[in-house]
Amino acid sequence: MSTAFPPGTAPVKAQYVVSLQNQTLPDDDAAEGNTNHVSLIRVTEEDGDDDSKAPTQGEKPRMSGAQRKKLARDEKKKRRGQNKGRRFQKMREELDLCWKVAAGETCEFGSECRFTHNVGEYLSAKPRDVKFPAVSELSTEPPFVIPGDAGAVANQVAETQSSLDPTTMCTVHSETGKCRHGFKCRFLGAHVEAVGNGFSDELSLIVDGEKAAHAAVSATELNFVDPDVRKQLRTRKYPRPVSDAYLKEIQQSPDTKDEEILETPEEAGAGFEALTSRDIGMSQTDTPDTPMRFVEKKRLHWSGKTYLAPLTTVGNLPFRRLCISLGADITCGEMGLATSFLAGSKEEWSLVRRHPSEGIFGVQLAGNKPSTLVPAAEAIARECGQNVDFVDLNCGCPIDLVFKSGSGSALLDAPGKLGKILTGMNRALGEVPVTIKLRAGVKDGRNTAHKLMPRIASEWGVGCMTLHGRTRQQRYQKLADWDYIKECVAAVRAKEADSNLPPIPIFGGGDAFSSQDYWEKVEYSGVDGVMVARGALIKPWIFTEIKERREWDISSKERLELIRRFAEYGLSHFGTDTAGLNTTRRYLCEALSFQYRYVPIGLLEYLPSKINDRPPAYRGRDELETLLASPDSRDWVKISEVFLGPAPEAWTFVPKHRSNAYESQG
Ligand SMILES: Cc1cc2nc3c(=O)[nH]c(=O)nc-3n(C[C@H](O)[C@H](O)[C@H](O)COP(=O)(O)O)c2cc1C
Basic residues bias: where (predicted)? Predict the structure, then answer.
């Protein structure tokens, strides 16, 4: 059978093949590298909070302006596969209603308020409500929604020229009993009632008190950080006693010349043994200035659990929530820069937000030295310690600007400095464990993880290690090296046995794409689990497959239901007003820019499917399945319109990477 297909081709059955020309392989390196808050070149965000976008102070202490420009030029060259200058504007309404009045409250600014307080006037200018379809209304044929009986009522409302559609549903209101956007909600018809004789008269917002009380406990997102805290950080008034004591300690150590500029492994490693041990992370010696309590770290019992990888931009809260609903056990937020946390950046602090369904949740930090990473960890522990189960240190990020500043995968070549960072973070985090995510090494053919991992396990006290089996240099087209992952696991276990230490969980990472593939990787390499990244982006239901040890021939309708679920979670997180709705649309399109790559396994001659296999052009088993396979970004926008209504004229979606031959929508 397999001989019929050239290597690297997804074996699509002949009856579904439209053209034998394979689709181009999407550029995952570009997708990983094109980050919102990391890249210094591309600066765009909806949230309008610019403070995290400026080149981060302190990360590149010895880089001149000219050097930085050269770096940016080099970076640009490298990012040929990316769409540069993606801009996503926050969509606003022409006549904007005061959010207090919108929520049925009184605005303390009264007539001084710069937003309108006239609900009637606002509603007559407001675009028509969006119809959010129920699961039962979804269909596999265009327009992919069955109108249902509700249409008649909708027409009646249209006759009153009202923006309201009483047949729609507001998923936030149905889940939580109230909608914080009130009159500004684009699904308002679902939670407003007329007081008087018609919709255009007096309107009042409906609140289901009992549901709201229940939701306050079970459905409220966690880790909102007060703007005052961010201000304190920005103005350097935020207390950081543990970090200050630790940094003083390492600075005063005769073996540490200048911690800020330690670069080479030799310099970094010199004389550090006295300070570092696995136990140091758990119990520390007191310093005269700051008495330290003995702190027992929470142990991570992660063996056998499924782990969704940290994913910049696409690993947002709604996506993580979707994966949880499909079987993911452990989730980690998108990589955040230590310096931006310390600068009080609103965008960076939003990365710690956690949904209550995220049972085991961590925050990932990137940085290049103890003086930023340790205080950032301390602030996270103080502000969110109760609701953060681990803090992960990024030692894998390959992006040039991150690497060249000494962060991400650059730390792989600076073990001494890495030890100081881990020891300090351990102290700063109290009982919250530190975990670490590494790559095999920096350069191809020069793997270092097998030496580094046993040291990390025995000397610096991490709660879990994840190894992505590629070097920094390696592209995604080449498969991860699971032989090497196996070698590293063995090296760690041998060291632990020698040192009489309990085994810590080790996760491997790279190319997991099916249940069979996942379990084979676990059994072969001896890891405690596989962290799943692109596999989850392309098919979020991979977690169900893994848990149930089966391959799921998911139907197009079921996939549409999951897209609906993502839209629901997006609206709940970003908001149901015009701005939130279009931010949801943007992140839905980001998600679809990976999901179109799923080739339904029912169309394949044989299994398992492989992550790097390219399909020929094919049609699905129904129109919806064909649409879901489209690499055209305009089709992703079309799919978003099923749930979020027509995209505004001014709204465009430019995909992250040029994976297809089509123009962007716009
Ligand atoms: C779009 C994208 C974003 C990523 N963002 C992060 C990140 O923020 N932090 C991180 O440690 N790794 C990040 N990675 C790397 C993944 O977590 C993972 O290690 C890698 O993709 C290998 O796993 P896979 O073969 O299952 O995709 C990203 C990867 C992709 C494709």
Answer: 67-87
334 lines ligand 1 (CB under 6 A): yes
Q: For ligand 1, say whether the CB of 28 is within 6 Å of any of its atoms.
A: yes
What pLDDT was estimated at residue 261?
41
Residue 327 Ramachandran class (φ > 0 left, ψ -120 to 50 alpha, else beta): left
Taking CA atoms only, the protein residue closest to ligand 1 atom 10 is 310
* pLDDT tens track for 23-58: 677 888 888 873 333 433 222 334 333 333 333 333
pLDDT-based confidence at residue 656 (cuts at 50, 70, 90): confident
Specify the residue for token string 């794409």: 513
For the ranges 58-72, 366-380, 549-563, 592-606, which has the lowest average pLDDT? Answer: 58-72
Q: What percent of the chain has pLDDT over 70?
A: 80
Strand segments (E) across 480-545: 506-509, 529-532
In this prediction, residues 611-621 reach a mean pLDDT of 95
Q: Crossing angle for the helix pair 449-459 and 415-428, nearest 10 degrees?
A: 30
- Assess whether 98 carries a catalytic annotation: no
- Structural domains present in the chain: 14-43+63-85+562-595+604-663 (no CATH), 99-218 (no CATH), 285-548 (3.20.20.70)
8 Å CB contact between 604 and 11: yes
- The pLDDT of residue 199: 47
- Give the residue, out of 332, 468, 593, with the most ligand 1 atoms within 8 A of its beta carbon, to mutate for a pocket test: 468
Q: Whose CA is nearest to atom 30 of ligand 1?
A: 32
Residue 649 Cα to ligand 1 midpoint, Å, equals 33
H helices within 10-88, ranges in order?
28-33, 65-78
- If you take atom 18 of ligand 1, which residue's CA is the nearest one? 533
429 lines ligand 1 (CB under 6 A): no
Residue 602 is given by DSSP the state: G
Q: Which of 312, 323, 334, 340 to mutate to test the pocket of ligand 1 (most atoms within 8 A of CB)?
A: 312
pTM of the predicted structure, to 2 decimals: 0.87
Going by CA atoms, what residue is nearest to atom 31 of ligand 1?
32
Range name among 153-167, 291-305, 323-337, 551-565 with the lowest pLDDT average = 153-167
In this prediction the ipTM stands at: 1.00
Q: What is the CA radius of gyration of the chain?
A: 26
Q: Considering the candidates 323, 397, 464, 589, report the single residue annotated as catalytic.
A: 397
At residue 19, the 3 state secondary structure works out as strand
Between residues 230 and 294, which one has the greater pLDDT?
230
Q: How far is CA 228 from the centre of its chain?
A: 25
263 has a pLDDT exceeding 50 = no
- What's the whole-number average pLDDT of the chain? 85
Q: What is the pLDDT of residue 54?
A: 31
Cα-Cα-Cα-Cα dihedral of 643, 645, 648, 653, to 10°? Answer: 20
Question: Is any atom of ligand 1 closer than 6 Å to the C-beta of 394?
Answer: yes
Distances (CA, A) of 477 to 480, 610, 658: 9, 12, 15
Q: Is 308 in the pocket of ligand 1 (CB under 6 A)?
A: no
Query: Could you tell me if residue 275 is left (phi over 0), alpha (psi between -120 and 50 degrees) or otherwise beta?
Result: alpha
Q: Is the CB of 393 under 6 A from ligand 1?
A: no
335 lines ligand 1 (CB under 6 A): yes
Q: Give the rounded distance of the alpha carbon of 278 from its chain centre.
A: 30
The mean per-residue pLDDT over the stretch 636-653 comes to 94
Q: Indicate whether 70 pLDDT > 70.
A: no
Atom of ligand 1 nearest to the CA of 314: 1
